[in-house]
Specification:
This protein is α+β, with helices and mostly antiparallel strands. It is built from four helices and ten strands; from the N terminus they run αββββββββββααα.
């Protein structure tokens, strides 16, 4: 979320109070209000007096480094770091009453996140996918080392890679489902990380048990042959 949101104060919250969101439109109130804090602008501009330049994602309000402007059909957020967004109001009916600074910040966050959630989710899943590639490669290498050290009886590296892919796919799927239900990047990453750790533990436990079973079976077969002779 752009840092310009920190410019919101109690005076601005009082001015936003009294407006209503009706089917994606901002209505009511006094129609126009602005306050300048250095190179920062906080405004309610129902007549679209303030103009922007640039494309969505890098919008700028002429003469200001930071700006938060409530207009009739969208919210303008422009930050000094070069980012700037035009945020449509959600299709909801709500009266803006008894607002404080936290309420206005929460409203701006909610509107911004509702519009850009799909993009954020795509970026987050791309990060998880890259992490998964490295984790899968590391896990495959670790499983293959167990063959070299004769801890397991793997036949080929392909078998180790298959086990690594299966072990990392389930946590990735669980994290994706959790993100679709309620998206929070830290939570999604935590689910994936814990899932991978558990799958690594289960994988090595399975390999160890398989080795012990094969070893006992091999020993029993030799004993049977000796008895026959």
């Amino acid at each position: 979320m752009p840092s310009v949101i920190q410019e919101v104060d109690e005076t601005f919250a009082d001015q936003v109070e009294g407006y209503q969101l009706t089917n994606g439109k901002l209505t009511g109130g006094k129609g126009f209000y602005q306050v300048e804090k250095g190179r920062a602008l906080l405004a309610v501009d129902m007549k679209h007096q303030f103009k922007t330049s640039g494309e969505n994602g890098s919008l700028k309000v002429k003469g200001y480094n930071n700006a938060i402007i409530f207009q009739s059909d969208h919210l303008i957020i422009s930050d000094q770091n070069g980012t700037g967004f035009s945020v449509r109001y959600a299709k909801m009916d709500a009266g803006l009453k008894d607002l404080n600074v936290h309420d206005v910040e929460a409203l701006i966050n909610k509107l911004w996140f509702a519009q850009y959630k799909p993009m954020i989710m795509v970026l987050a899943y791309a990060v998880i996918f890259i992490i998964q590639l490295f984790m899968t490669a590391a896990l495959a290498g670790g499983i293959w080392i167990t063959k070299i050290s004769k801890m397991t009886r793997l036949v080929s590296f392909k078998e180790a890679a298959s086990m690594a892919i299966c072990g990392s796919a389930l946590p990735a799927f669980a994290a994706a489902v959790a993100g679709m239900v309620h998206f929070d990047f830290i939570t999604v990453l935590l689910i994936y990380s814990c899932g991978v750790a558990l799958m690594i533990s289960f994988t090595f436990r399975y390999l160890t048990q398989t080795r012990d079973y094969n070893g006992n079976l091999h020993f029993g077969g030799n004993h049977g042959k000796s008895a026959a002779f």
